[in-house]
Amino acid sequence: MRIDILSVVPELLESPLKYSIVGRAIKKGLVEIHVHNIRKYGIGSRATVDDYSYGGDAGMVMMVEPVERMINELRSERDYDEIIYLSPDGELLNQGISNELSLLNNIMLLCGHYKGIDERIREHLITREISVGDYVVSGGEIPAALLADSIVRLLPGALTDETRQLSRWPAIPSCLHEARRLQGLESPGSASERQSETYQRLAGRTGRATDKREKARTSGKH
């Protein structure tokens, strides 16, 4: 699998993609992740990638030309199954979407910045828009790293047998977990009492998660 990420601040993606499960998957050859600086096709001597929007609204908008040229360069080298824009008003990311994307060969992720991207990019170049939640962040780089992580961990060989069970849908814990206790931090009560307490807590947590998913389906909100 190959993931290409387009950004105006590629430095923000260096650390999240080098370590842990994603980093090991790259070293194993399970996935290629390439981060591209959109400023490569910036306009003029300052490599400008943004401009004021029509109408005089506050904030800068990423221009069409640099993004289009970067996307066309990559598409000239290979076919892409999806070109995804990390958008606050896109479809809300869940495990089902990550499962679906993990079955593809080549995907491209476009990170917005400033006030957003020119609407014509969304209309003519983007095939899908995904949101990681109903909140605002400074750019699409962290959401792109989050999406990439959720996809890569699903690739065969990325996880050990012990951790593969965690990548399932719905994403609800099968039990409550505690690290091995240090002396002086033992939980009070007998083993049977602890087990009963665990079942009650898990039942409440599972019920809350189910209620949240049902509310999201009916309201269309996170």
What do the pLDDT scores average to? 81
Q: For the CA atoms, what is the radius of gyration?
A: 21 Å
Number of strands: 7
Helix and strand string, N-terminal first? EHEEEHEHEHEHHH
Identify the strand order in the major beta sheet. Answer: 2-1-6-5-7
User: Helical content, roughly?
Assistant: 25-40%
Q: Number of helical runs? A: 7
Which regions have little confidence, pLDDT < 50, spanning 5+ residues? Answer: none
What structural class results from the helix and strand content? alpha/beta
Overall body shape: globular
The major beta sheet can be summarized as: 5 strands, parallel
Distance between the termini: 29 Å
Strand content: 15-25%
Can you characterise this structure?
The chain has a 5-stranded parallel β-sheet with strand order 2-1-6-5-7. It starts with a strand and ends with a helix. It has 222 residues and is of the alpha/beta class. The radius of gyration is 21 Å and the shape is globular. The protein has helices at 20-27, 64-75, 95-101, 119-124, 141-152, 161-164, 191-219; strands at residues 2-7, 32-37, 50-52, 60-62, 82-92, 106-111, 128-131. It has 7 helices and 7 strands; from the N terminus they run E-H-E-E-E-H-E-H-E-H-E-H-H-H. Strand 5 (82-92), helix 3 and strand 6 (106-111) form a beta-alpha-beta unit.
